[in-house]
Amino acid sequence: MAKPDPALLSPARYAFTAEIMTRYADLDTNGHINNVATAIYFEDLRVRFEHGLGVGDLGDASPTQVVVASIQIEYLAEAFYPDPVVGHGAVSRIGSSSWDIVTLLTQKDVPYAFCKATLVSTAEGRPHRLAPALQAALERHTLRD
What we know:
- By secondary structure, the protein is α+β, with helices and mostly antiparallel strands.
- Helix content is 19%, strand content 36%.
- It starts with 15 loop residues before the first strand and ends in a 6-residue tail after the last helix.
- The relative contact order is 0.26.
């Protein structure tokens, strides 16, 4: 993935924000937050964001689930323990059965990592059209101008 558009590094563009505490165990031998911990922060943020949208509880008549089809992470700077990181999330694209979420992690107001994830609504192992309630929730949480 190419470096993110600088406009995507502005926390003000994101519809969702959550603080994530760092742990001593997240450090690598260089003394900064390691890449695996950063990926876990992105997962935590994405799940909190989806939970806030009501993903999985939006009244679709068929048994659907959400799967991650793609994740791309760009590491922009180092982050350190014990300062928390702040995660910012928004929807950047909505398709008929999938959507993209972009997330940004900052520490002390400095962007340190960016992630784009593509999620797919599925039923019986195949893409499934987005439920109207889910589509409406996604539309309310798109990137701000």
